[in-house]
Amino acid sequence: MSSKIYFSGSNKRSMSFYVIRTLSSVLNKVAPKLAIRQAQKLLLTPAKGRKKTPVPENMIIEQVNGVQGHLQQYRLGTGDIVLLTHGWSGSASQFFPLMEKIAQAGYQAIAFDHYSHGKSSGKVAHLPLFIKGVNDLVSLHGQHNIRCVVSHSMGTVSALNLPKHIPHLLIAPVFNMYDSLRKSVFDSGMSPPLFERLLKDIERTHKIEFKDAVSEQHIGLVEQPLNIVHDEEDRFAPLSASESIARDHKMITVHKTQGQGHGRIINSDTTWQVLQGVLIEA
Asked: What element of type H or E holds 134?
């Protein structure tokens, strides 16, 4: 359900809008704890992927410890590390074809399932947990061993919260996340006071404020040229947002694709070509 809310571009109000608005408003007043639990189920539960991707030969799959439980890690190849971080309702398996190319080029590709995604622990997910997850992997392997971070969709937001000297490749990045999230949630019918209470609860628990964590607060601090790969027909994260950011920050280059959408672009020829250039310059 949460993916439909986060990535919805519709402004139409169906009967469900009024049902959700009424129920969430009433629950927030008469049973606030139950309201929070229901809001978590509605907004913080990522969808489970059904597509099975063949596991590359010689891939090492293991569980590693993080601050919020265990994370499922996938390693392929040897050498300097290319760390890959997926987006909302995604998984490490989305990167498997790209990881094979990285390993064949002489690097170690490491991907992982974020908390509450894939085979990692947890029942709910949100941006602060994404940030903690990618930080867990960087701490585990050491900043000095990481040649580059490759991120997709919401994973780009968490990646940009990492130390600013680490080279990045952003695939279909999400900008204006905080405002877009609020609009999408309110358009779904969720009671605004309940939503704001849920956000404050998350921020208080994890000591990370959403407004301070969004990409716009960090992208200007990146210490080297930044490459973005984005499809012209991306229905979930509009190319226009990446182009706008690039106009404001001259160190950003946007590489456009056609017909790759929001997901297929991960393993596109353009992504691999751009990543090769990033690895050479890193």
From this structure: helix 127-141
